[in-house]
């Protein structure tokens, strides 16, 4: 993101009780820098529109310190075209997460978002991940794909099905 | 894995005042609490 232009953050917490700690940390940080204290709110409370989205990483998981593109350029374009034709918005995002060894992993991803007033598009995205991301002919090494529904992240997994 | 649910919390840094140092510090701070985070264009999800 661009310093000075404002950043929004989507933060994944495993336990909603951690939100109080998150608010305190952000508040203390802002006060220490004389910044306006940002409002930390649950995403589903802030949104005026019901939406769902998923994150498709650009790169494979680190293996022996190396990463490759997750999909070929041709396949990435196919995926993006299909989703945007179906009505999804696309944006590129940066994120970090902690792996099983406690190491911070950086990710650039495509975020595909659809307005979803009646769960139709949620179902569409779940099927798309299963059939096109995991079953589309090019190997996807992601153990799970992060799908957000009403501000709660659910994980779509190839081997264990949908949950 | 199947019992893991992530709850999303949304906030934004001030448009004029946040610096590169602030952003790097926020990233470190977030990973003390959260499994992960995504930086996103402000208001993309709340249009």
Apparent shape of chain B: flat
Characterize the largest beta sheet of chain B: strand count, sense, and whether it forms a barrel. none
Largest sheet of chain A: 5 strands, antiparallel
Order of helices and strands of chain B: EHE
Task: Bin the strand percentage of chain A.
Answer: 25-35%
- The tally of helices of chain A reads 4
Sheet-strand content of chain B, in percent, reads 25-35%
Please give a quick description of this structure.
The complex is a heterodimer of chains A (163) and B (47). With 163 residues, chain A is an alpha+beta fold.
What does this structure look like?
- The complex is a heterodimer of chains A (163) and B (47).
- By secondary structure, chain A is an alpha+beta fold.
- Helix content of chain A is 29%, strand content 30%.
- Chain A has helices at 18-32, 43-46, 73-85, 120-134; strands spanning 8-13, 41-42, 51-57, 89-98, 104-115, 144-149, 152-157.
- In chain A, a hairpin with a 5-residue loop joins strand 4 and strand 5.
- The mean pLDDT of chain A is 86.
- Chain B has one helix spanning 20-33; strands spanning 6-12, 36-40.
- The chains are: A alpha+beta (163), B alpha+beta (47).
- At the A-B interface, strand 1, helix 1, strand 2, helix 2 and strand 3 of A face strand 1, helix 1 and strand 2 of B.
Chain-wise SSE layout:
The complex is a heterodimer of chains A (163) and B (47).
Chain A: E1 8-13, H1 18-32, E2 41-42, H2 43-46, E3 51-57, H3 73-85, E4 89-98, E5 104-115, H4 120-134, E6 144-149, E7 152-157
Antiparallel strand pairs in A: 3-5, 3-6, 4-5, 6-7
Chain B: E1 6-12, H1 20-33, E2 36-40
Keyword list:
heterodimer, A: 163 residues, alpha+beta, 29% helix, globular, B: 47 residues, 2 strands, flat
